Amino acid sequence: MGTITKVKPPASGFPTLAWRASLVTCNVIGSDRLGEIDDARVIERTLEELAEYLPESRRARVVHARVHRIPMAIHAPEPGTEALRPPVRAPIEGLLLAGDWIATGFPSSMESAVRAGFMAAEEALADRGRLVSLTRDLPPASGAIAWLRTNARKVPLGRPRARLLELAGA
User: Fold this and answer.
1) What does the domain layout of the chain look like in residue ranges?
2) What is the pLDDT of residues 35-57, one digit of tens each?
3) Dihedrals φ, ψ of 154, to 5°?
């Protein structure tokens, strides 16, 4: 829903790090939960949340801000929803499930739906005595997720830390 920009252009007109301004952009996923609030309040709430993690940002002067309200469907799982994704094999005998919402190890996506389909095929064939592997094991977490799982507890206390712990599954 929103983009917040805080920029002080250099006198020369050319980008440089010497002027120490910041550009902050954010997306408010599920912005419909905010109700009918005006742009000034969106900016205010965003700055408040930014200050929870970066307290020194409270001293920043916003030079320019713009809020774009763009309605669209964006998959936005909440922390803890991954644990609710069911396995391919349902608790009803003979029922196999597939779809992007199945526990595949992938985010809910077309790739997840395809993986779930192959996983269901593996189970169906196993029920008939044919053990085949149509999917590969997922590699261990890497990048930001691996870093979060290792370092989230080192983040300062407060809501940002709790959110990182939830996202990392820690």
Assistant:
1) 1-74, 88-127, 139-170
2) 788 889 988 988 898 888 788 88
3) -85, -10
Q: What is the pTM of this model?
A: 0.49
Contacts of 55 by beta carbon, 8 Å cutoff, 6+ apart: none
Q: In the beta sheet, which residues pair with residue 96?
A: 89
For residue 3, what are the β-bridge partners?
Answer: 66
Burial 12-31 (b: 16+ CB within 10 A, else e): eeeeeeeeebeebeeebeeb
E-strand stretches of the chain: none
* b/e sequence 98-109, b meaning 16+ C-beta within 10 Å: bebbbbbebebe
Q: What is the pLDDT of residue 123?
A: 95
Are residues 2 and 28 in contact, defined by beta-carbon separation less than 8 angstroms? yes
Average of pLDDT values for 98-122?
A: 91
